[in-house]
Amino acid sequence: MADGPLLEQLHFGREDAERDVTDGLLLRGGFLPNAAYRGALSGRKMLIIGRKGSGKSAICMQLKADGAGHYAGTELIPPDETAGEEIRRFELQGLPGDSAKALIWRYLFAVYAARHLVAHAKDAHGYRPDSVKTLARFLKQNGESAEGRFGDRLAQAARGLQTSLSLEAFGFKAGLDVGQSPLSEGAQATRQLDVVEQGVAQAFADLGCGDPAGGALDDGEGHGPLLLMVDQLELVWSAETDSNSMVIGLLLAAKHAASLYGPAVRVLLFLRADIYDSLHFGEGDKFRGDELRITWTEQALRDLALARARASAGAELTAEVLWGELFPAEVEGEETAAYLFRRCLPRPRDAIQFLNLCQETASLIHGRDRITEADVVQAGRQFSDWKLKDLALEYLVAHPFLKHLFPLFQNTGYVVTRAVLGSRFEAAAESLHRLFPAYADALTVPGVIDVLYAVGFLGVRRGNDVVFAGGDDLPAQFHETEFHVHPCFRAALGANSAVVLRPFELGAAVGRVVQGGYQGGFNDGGFTSRPTRDHRLVEELRRSCHSILAQTSRAVSLAQGARDEITQQINRVLDEVNVLPTNTGSVYDLADRVLLTAHYFDTLAAQLLAGGLDDSTGAGDVVRRVREEARRLRRQAAGSYGSSGESSGP
Q: What is the pLDDT of residue 528?
C-alpha cells in the first residue's frame, strides 16, 4: 500500500512543454520518445503534425535539450504576434502572396544560419574563413545582431527586402547593383536574397560543414547539422488568406533551404493538424514524404503516465503500484487506466491534466493517501467540463460557432443518428445562420457532422466499432448514419447513457398489488379470487420481458451502449414482475399492472424511434418486438377483465 508522501510526490508534469522543461520533469525521464521524435531526430521528416496538446512542443524542447549530442547548434524560431503580423502583411509587387512570404522566411533562415556560422567557425573549427567574415559584416550592416526583439528585427528585414538590403559586405554598393535594369519588388527582393543565401552556402562549404569528408556530419568525430525549428505558429495564425499564405510560404522556404544548404542545415516545422489540413496549394503533394503525424494509442499513454510518475515519485515505481495502489484497480467496473484514457482525447496534455486532477482531488481536497474510485469519478466530471470548454477555444478561429452546437447534444443520449441530429439542427439553424452568416455554407447537417467529427467531438459507427478522427481514418461518409459523442464530453453534457429511456415506474394500481391490498371475496360460494389467472398474468409479463431481452441480445448491430440501456430498463420491469403476488385475489390490480406495462412498452418503442434507433442502427427488430409484446399484453389484460366477473359459485 502506498503511503501519504508517495502520493504527495506523484505528479505527471505540466500541460505545456516549456514549463515542463523549467521544472525539470521532462528532462528527468518524463519524455517518452515516439515515432515523431525519432523521425525528427534522424532528419527523415521535416513536418511534425499534430493536434493541440499532442506533444509537438515537447519534441521540440527535447530536441533542443539533446542538441549537443546530435547538432552543431539548435535554433528555435517561435513567432510572436508582432512577427506574425509582419509576415502576414508582407507583400511584394510582382509575386503572389505565397511566394512573397516564402522570401521572408528564407531570409530568416539565412540570417539564423549566418549568426550560427559566425560563432561556430571560431568555436568548433578554430578559424574564420573570408566567407564567414563577410557574413559577420553583413549582419552588422543590416542590424541583424542577436539582441533586440524578434518582431522588431523581422520588421527591419521586411523593409530591407521591400526596398534594399545592405549588400556591401558581398561587394555590392547598393541593393540595385545586383541587377542591370529596374526590377519589380519581387524580382529585386529575390536577387538580393540569392546573394545572401549564396554567401551562407559558401561559408558552410568553406568550413566543410555538411561534407562527410570534412567531418561535419554526426559521424562520431565531427558535428551534426544546424537545426532550425519553427514552433507554435498557431499563436499568429488566423483562418484568413494571408495567414494561410504565411504557412504555405514557410513550407516553401523550408523545402528551399533543405535543397540549398544540403546536410549542413535541417529545418523542422511543428504544425497543428487543423492548420496544415486547411492549406490548399499546388505544391502540397511534394511534402507528403516529409510529413509525420503524431498519434497516440492507449498503450502509449499508459507508458507516458508511468514514465512521468517515475520521474516525480521515483524510478522504482511499478505499473502495479501506480494502477493498483496509488490509483484504484477499477472504476465503475472498468480497469482504471482504460477508464481514464478512454475519457480523454488521445493526446498527452489531456492525459496529464486528468491524471493530475485525480491526484489533486484525492491528496489536496480529501487529504487521502491514495486515490479512490470516488476521487476519479469526481475528477472526471470536472475534467469533462474543462475539455468541452477547451474544445471550443481550440477551434475558435476556424470554427467560431462550435460551442453553439453543443446544446444539440445536451441532456440526451450520447448515440445520435443523422436523422435525429437533422431534426434538432433544423430547430436551431435559423439562429445559427443569423449569428454566423459567414459560415452559412458550413452550417448544414452534413457540414456540422464533418466539423464535429474532425474535431473529435463525434465518432462514427463502423461495423461493431466506433471510430473517432485521428491518423488516416476516413472522414464521416454520407451513408453513415450513427454517431457517438466522445466519452470525454459526456459528463459535461449530461449524456451519460446511450439513449435516454424513461425508467419504468409503478402507478397507483400497481402500488396496491405490491402492498398486497385486495378486494376481498367470499369463500362460501360468493366471489372468490382466481389464483390461476393471477399466475397466468404474471407469467405473461415475465414472458414478455424475456422475449424483449432475447431480441435485444440478438441485435448485434445495435450499439452496445444502447443495448445495455434497453436491457437495464427491461430488467427493471422484470424485477418488479418477479415480486408480484400471484394468489391475492386481486385480479383487477394485476390486469392494471399488465396494462401499465403495455403502455410503458409503447412509450419505450416511441423513445427509441425518437432517438433515431430504427432499422438503420440495428434497433428495428427490437422496436417491433417491444410493440408486439405491448399488443399481446393488452389482449391478455382485456381477457382478464372480460372474464373476471363470472360467477364462481357451484
A: 42
User: What is the average per-residue pLDDT within 597-615?
Assistant: 88
Q: How confident is residue 368, by pLDDT bands cut at 50, 70 and 90?
A: very high
Q: Of 177, 162, 16, 172, which is closest to residue 87 (Cα–Cα)?
A: 162
Report residue 529 as a C-alpha cell: 379470487
> Which amino acid is present at 178?
V
Amino acid at 642: G
Packing angle, helices 531-554 and 620-643, rounded to 10: 170
Q: What are phi and psi of 280, to 5 degrees?
A: -135, 110
Does the pLDDT of residue 57 top 70, yes or no? yes
Alpha helix (H) residue ranges in 436-559: 445-454, 487-493, 508-514, 531-554
Burial status of residue 504 (CB atoms within 10 A of its CB: 0-12, 13-18, 19 or more): buried
Taking the C-alpha atoms of residue 275 and residue 51, their distance in angstroms, rounded to an integer, is 9
Beta-bridge mates of residue 48: 270, 292
CA distances from 566 to 588, 613, 622 (A): 29, 11, 9
> Looking up cell 496509488, which residue turns up?
326
Q: Looking up cell 556560422, which residue turns up?
A: 117
Please tell me the distance from the alpha carbon of residue 165 to that of residue 106, in angstroms, as a whole number: 14
Supply the pLDDT for residue 44: 86
Among 185, 166, 162, which Cα is nearest to 174's? 166
What are 603's three cell numbers?
Answer: 412509450
Report DSSP state, residue 507: -
- Three cell numbers, residue 255: 523545402
Residue 362 reports pLDDT greater than 90: yes
Question: What cell does 273 get?
Answer: 493538424
C-alpha closest to that of 305 among 292, 286, 290, 323: 323
